[in-house]
Amino acid sequence: MKQKTAQQILDVAQSMVRNRGYSAFSYADIAKEIGIRKASIHYHFPSKDDLVKELVKRYQKNLARKCVEIEQEGKTPQAQLRDFVNLYRDGLQDNKICLCGMLTADLTVLNSEIQAEIRSFFSVTESWLARLLHRGCETEAWQCSQSVEVEAKMLLSMLQGAQLLARVAEDSSAAFDQITGACLEEKLSGVSD
After folding, report:
1. Calpha distance 89→92 (Å, rounded)
2. Between the CA atoms of 23, 52, 29 and 25, what dihedral angle is there, to the nearest 10 degrees?
3. What is the model's pTM?
4. What are the DNA-binding region positions (predicted)?
5. Whole-angstrom Cα distance, residue 71 to residue 91?
6. Domains in the chain and their CATH numbers?
7. Calpha distance 26→63 (Å, rounded)
8. pLDDT category, 192, cuts 50, 70, 90?
C-alpha cells in the first residue's frame, strides 16, 4: 500500500509539473487529486524538493528505458530518430511538455540537487542522441555537418522548443510536426510514420 501511494503521488505530481510547472502546484493539490491527507505525502516525500528530485530521477530512468527499447528494435537510424522525436510529440498529450524542460524554467528557484538531476537528464539524453547521430553517420544514413555532440544539443534544443511553441498552437501535434519536420527533413527523409 505504501509503495502504491508513493507511485500515485509521483504520477499526479509529474502530471502537474509537466502541465503547470514547479511553482504552480502544492501538496494540497496532490492530496486533493488523490484523496489523501497532505501528511501522507510528507510521509513519503518530506519536502517538495524531495518529491521533485525523485520525479526527475524517475523521469530520466523512464526515458533511458525508452531509448534502450528504441535501440533494441533494430530499426534504421532514421526510424530510431523518428521514434525518439515521437516521444516528445506524444508528450504533448493533455497539454504537457517534458518534465525537465518545464523545470528548467524554474531552475533558479530549485535547489542544487534538483538542478544537478536536471543537468544529468539533459547530459544523458544528449549523449544518447550523439551516439544515434554517430551511427547514422557511420551507416551513411545522413551527413553530419558538425560534431555529433553539437548536433545532439541542437536537436534536443529544437525538440524542447518545439514542445513549447506547439503548446500554444491550436493544433499542438500539427505545429510540432511542422517545426520538427522542417528541422529534421534531411535526417528523416524516407521514414514514414
Report:
1. 6
2. 10
3. 0.91
4. 26-45
5. 20
6. 49-188 (1.10.357.10)
7. 25
8. very low
